[in-house]
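Hi Prof. W.,

I finally got the ABC transporter, ATP-binding protein, MDR family prediction working! I wasn't sure whether to trim anything, so I left the full sequence exactly as given:
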Amino acid sequence: MKALKYINKYFIKYKWRLIIGISITVLSKLLALKVPQIVGESLNIVEDYQNGTITDLKLVEHELLMNVLLLIGVAVLAGFFTFLMRQTIIVTSRLIEFDLKNEIYHQYQRLSLNFYKKNRTGDLMNRISEDVSKVRMYVGPAVMYTMNIIVLLVVGFTQMIQIDVKLTMYTLFPFPLLSIAIFTLSKVIHKRSSIVQEYLSKLTTFNQEFFSGISVVKSYGIEKSIIKDFDEIADKSKEKNIHLQQANALFFPLMILLIGISNIIVIYVGGQQYINNEIQIGTIIEFMLYINILTWPVAVVGWVTSMIQQAEASQLRINEFLRQVPEIQNYNTAPTVLQGKVEFKNVTFTYDDTNITALKNVSFLAQAGETVAILGKTGAGKSTIIELIARLYDTKVGSILMDQNPIESLNLNDLRNQIGFVPQDPFLFSESISNNIKFGKEDATDNEIVQAAKDAVVHNNIIDFPNGYKTVLGERGVTLSGGQKQRVSIARAIIKNPKILIFDDCLSAVDTETEERILTNLKKVSKNKTTFIISHRISSAKNADKIIILEQGEIIQQGTHNQLINTAGYYKELHDQQLLEKEN
Ligand SMILES: Nc1ncnc2c1ncn2[C@@H]1O[C@H](COP(=O)(O)OP(=O)(O)OP(=O)(O)O)[C@@H](O)[C@H]1O
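And this is what came out:
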């Protein structure tokens, strides 16, 4: 129960709802326990009249009528209280669930990119859905049933003892034995349902991946093997489900057995006491009704215990996650305005998850307003430079300066707000095209959106769609071609009017003619902005103020186009090769 202590702050927050809820639970159960008493009393009055102890028929009729009215009143009130009990305790559990989900969601927002690379999306989703649901079961149903169990067992048992100690002992004799059996069975049921749950998520994950990769599956014609894999998991899932149902099927027979044995004992022992004139017939019926009421709490003890155990395990996972400190911290809350000067001084960077040293002793200077092109073979470390400029990672060796200040000393939000980043694989939301562009500037006017699209040379494509800028994109923007996606993403960065523009190999999917037009437009747009262009093409780099060539994390060449084409090395080779390709 150590991990679940974390939830106490929510119990305190909603204490009044809970106190009212618990009081109502107690009242509703006390009322439920009145029923056997009233029924027993009524039968005893009838018996008294029959054997002549009471002779006044009118009095008997009056008493019976009063008891019937009382029974109806108790039933109505107990029903009303049960309704209120759900309205208070279960509603509180939903409120706590909402708060906890919000807390987790805010933590998701704070955590750094590295965290998302290290954790699987499925696990992260589970934390906020499955784990929180399990904790909610503790906060709501477990609290409610625990109160039910305590009140029913304590008050019910006390009432029975007060009537007849001997009969109570005999009646409750099978309870411990069978409750152990039910408890064990509940554990088995919970274990098996966890396995069923596991297979269910395996099936969901399998289908999710299959749907996402549908084009690969279809183009490779591997539907049959996919179906075979699916069948295997589905078969296992079915098997586990049947296994669970076998255990489930035993639950109610066990309960009925418990009720049956206790009833037989009451009839047998009570019958003998009745013959010996020790008790009245109403008392036997009263005891039988108590048995029915008390069986349920005994049966659910196991269920509630495992509910609490599961909630504890889930809360432990949630706590571990909430305790994670974001790797990238904001050390400055004061507003930061960037001029755009970027300097790398002897930066060496190693990704701690793979231990790959992506940058080795990298130094360069980009003056505010300059355009810097970064070229190099795949895996040379180009994107890593960009990720460091956006402070998606912090470097431990060397320093990165922005306008002469260490990057870590700037306000993190302001830094990122003043960077317009077009990633290699642009992500578009399942929203309209205009909303996807507006993502860069929420209050952008229609004219601004159109201008940004024109600058990114995607306007003509957009107006060709029947719904123009209102065209809604499918999941991951599937209705657009690769090049169109890249250009919408460029429009999104341009509209932001940032101080630093970053294009991470984002012109790879457009033809050279369109690339030329975009670059011409960018010249106009990127005035007074420091621009970084990562590319594999000379055409994207040739007009840059500075060109940096990376190889295996090291800068091997640096200079302007004219300088580099006259120096033997990677850039000249690439230039000659691409020139040859163009001529051919
Ligand atoms: N998030 C990451 N975690 C661990 N290693 C990474 C990560 N990102 C990149 N790397 C590794 O760092 C090295 C440099 O990668 P980077 O993406 O910077 O290269 P790149 O020059 O941009 O390549 P490309 O042209 O293919 O995009 C590679 O060896 C890569 O495997």
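Residues 117, 351, 353-354, 356, 358, 376, 378-384, 424, 505 surround adenosine-5'-triphosphate (CB under 6 Å). Does that look reasonable to you?

Thanks,
D.
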